[in-house]
Amino acid sequence: MQDRVVNNQSNTDDKANLTRIRREKSANGQSLDVTTTNSSYKIKIPKDGAGESTTLNKFRETIKDVLEEITSLEVNTMIVGTIPMTKFDAQEFYTNLIENTMYKTEEGLQDIKISLLERSSDLKQKGAALSQSELEGYNRDLAIYKRAERNFSDRQNSQDPRQKELFEIEQACYEDLANKVLQLDIPKNPDGSIITDAPMICYFRKLWEIQQSVLNGDRIYAQTKFHLDGDLTNKFVDDLFVPSRSKIDPTMAKLIFDLHYQAVENAQKKWTDLITTCVNLVKDLIPFRAK
Questions:
Q1: E strand map for 3-147
Q2: Of these four, 90, 146, 188, 189, which has the most CB atoms within 10 Å of its CB?
Q3: Domain ranges of the chain
């Protein structure tokens, strides 16, 4: 991944071009899967009131954000082959997701190809005024694109059924996550790094967890969802109930049920405590609201 960031300006241009093309497609009526399991991240700007503390206002906004994010509780029980040592970092997740979407998907590679063709035309028009650094930067990016395109083609045309399946899963994952991110209006610093706040970190962490689970081939065996309106949904993989056709030993199936039941109990208690804490904080802040 590191060798792709060889020209900061061109890399930024490619990302901008990718975003522009995707949004044009959305505006023209072409479908984009932008459904999310939680409300989309939105930038919230606190408003000052007469005699009101900006810090207090921001704190109230944060509490409101938390309440919006915990309107539902989801508990998943999975069996995984490995537990990755990678820790979540919002900036790293965003950067890697954009780069993977650019260099590992058909649409992303097409976006880069269009960008390189436009840059090639611009460089030719400069003629003798073309600098050596510009030419070297273009040649590096072209070489990176060709290498990524060959790798993509090899994986796409693989005769190994398992490798083909993994390739298609990866494609769907990157496209889905990229569509979810492209719908956001993400604030950035002058150096191009994203400006993170609590709601965005929370939203990105959920996307990161989805990415880790999908790309690592994790399988959810039991899922429970609670909603504040009273809805409760339980889902279980049918292999847990049909030992004759399943590779899951009955003893292991019972262990999964027990672990999930305990996880649901613990999560529900913590969820209830968190809601109670947030509601009490809001009540305590009411006397300090702007008159």
A1: 72-79
A2: 90
A3: 10-24+37-288
